[in-house]
């Protein structure tokens, strides 16, 4: 069965098309994304502004055209942080149904975190030792403590990079004072995570999709120039390599980042906030191992469909 997953995020609206086989395995046919930036201009006020709604509907139309070309049998559309927080989400959902015949399923943070775990565990070795999984989104960031037996703890925090960017409006390039303000806010909001981690010994962070994909691609381009990271589903990032990129990004201007090798254009404005967040977690939790994983919510959705959970 050819299945299409549309993931309506705060920054991007992603599409994955996969063939699900009778033996409950699947093959990814296509992945693509459209930078709709649903949260831009309204995320702090818990709304999706008219311009963002139009960008979102346009993204859905483009993805539907692709889905039609690939003759998908089933379409599942999942919306996360920006949509679940927006007081006017019914306007977008209604237009998606009326104009495009798409049923948008808005999921809560815990459900989103579960989907992310079901994506990550397929391609990243997770054993008995608990690991910390982090998905950095535009509106929210999901943390999952898990091992091979399953999820031990999960939580969604409204600390996504688009949200933080609009909240703090940092200078270009960002200043030390800006970084301190962002980190102070992060530390306060992550209190439930610090409390949960008192029960578990964690030394490994697995970064799922999004900002981690861009970070890994930029690092690989420097240190493993013959390695095609687009063919990999996970990538080990030495902490020294991450620190090197972190210092480069926090000193950079928007224009400089725009021209950096392997920089995803739709992340030029948010990548600095993302690496500040990652660096904070690495430092505060004394993380020893960092991995990037390209599987997350979309692949977890396919997993749950196969197992009749979605």
Short précis:
The protein is built from twelve helices and eleven strands. It has 310 residues and is α/β, with parallel strands linked by helices.
Helical stretch tally: 12
Distance between the termini: 15 Å
The gross shape turns out to be globular
Helix percent band = 40-55%
CATH topological fold name of the largest domain: Nucleotidyltransferase, domain 5
Biggest sheet layout: 6 strands, mixed
Q: Approximately what portion of the residues adopt beta-strand conformation?
A: 15-25%
Placed side by side, the strands forming the largest sheet appear as 8-7-6-9-11-10
CATH superfamily of the largest domain: Exopolyphosphatase. Domain 2
CATH architecture of the largest domain: 2-Layer Sandwich
Q: How many domains, in number, for the residues?
A: 2
The overall pLDDT, averaged over residues, is 97
Q: Structural class of the secondary structure composition?
A: alpha/beta
CATH class categorisation of the largest domain: Alpha Beta
Describe the structure.
With 310 residues, the chain is α/β, with parallel strands linked by helices. It has two domains: 2-106, ATPase, nucleotide binding domain (Nucleotidyltransferase, domain 5), CATH 3.30.420.40; 124-297, Nucleotidyltransferase, domain 5, CATH 3.30.420. The chain is 43% helix and 22% strand. The protein has twelve helices and eleven strands. The protein has helices at residues 50-69, 81-85, 89-100, 109-120, 161-168, 176-189, 191-196, 210-223, 239-250, 254-258, 271-284, 297-306, and strands at 2-8, 13-20, 26-34, 74-79, 104-106, 131-136, 141-147, 150-157, 204-208, 234-236, 289-293. The strands form two sheets. It has a six-stranded mixed β-sheet, with helices on both faces. Strands 3-2-1-4-5 form a five-stranded mixed β-sheet, with helices on both faces. β6 and β7 (141-147) form a beta hairpin. α1 packs parallel to α3 (89-100) and α6 (176-189) packs across α11.
């Amino acid at each position: 069965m050819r299945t299409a997953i549309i993931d309506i995020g705060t920054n991007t609206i992603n599409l994955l098309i996969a063939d699900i086989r009778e033996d409950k395995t699947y093959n990814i046919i296509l992945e693509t994304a459209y930078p709709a930036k649903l949260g831009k201009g309204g995320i702090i006020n818990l709304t999706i502004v008219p311009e963002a709604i139009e960008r979102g509907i346009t993204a859905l139309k483009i993805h539907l055209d692709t889905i039609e070309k690939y003759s998908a049998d089933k379409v599942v559309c999942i919306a996360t942080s920006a949509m679940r927080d927006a007081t006017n989400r019914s306007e977008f959902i209604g237009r998606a149904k009326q104009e495009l015949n798409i049923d948008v399923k808005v999921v809560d943070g815990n459900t989103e975190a579960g989907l992310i775990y079901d994506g990550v565990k397929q391609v990243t070795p997770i054993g008995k030792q608990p690991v910390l999984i982090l998905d950095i989104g535009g509106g929210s960031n999901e943390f999952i403590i898990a091992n091979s037996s399953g999820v031990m703890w999960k939580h969604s925090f409204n600390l996504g990079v688009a949200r933080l960017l609009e909240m703090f409006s940092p200078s270009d390039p960002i200043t030390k004072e800006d970084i301190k303000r962002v980190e102070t806010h992060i530390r306060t909001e992550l209190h439930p995570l610090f409390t949960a981690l008192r029960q578990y010994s964690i030394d490994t962070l697995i970064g799922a999709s999004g900002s981690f994909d861009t970070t890994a691609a930029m690092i690989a381009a420097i240190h493993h120039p013959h390695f095609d990271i687009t063919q990999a589903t996970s990538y080990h990032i030495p902490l020294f390599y991450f620190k090197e990129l972190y210092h480069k990004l926090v000193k950079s201007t928007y224009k400089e980042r725009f021209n950096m090798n392997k920089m995803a254009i739709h992340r030029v404005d948010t990548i600095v906030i993302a690496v500040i967040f990652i660096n904070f977690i690495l430092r505060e939790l004394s993380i020893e191992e960092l991995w990037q994983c390209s599987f997350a919510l979309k692949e977890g959705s396919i997993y749950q469909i196969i197992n009749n959970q979605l």
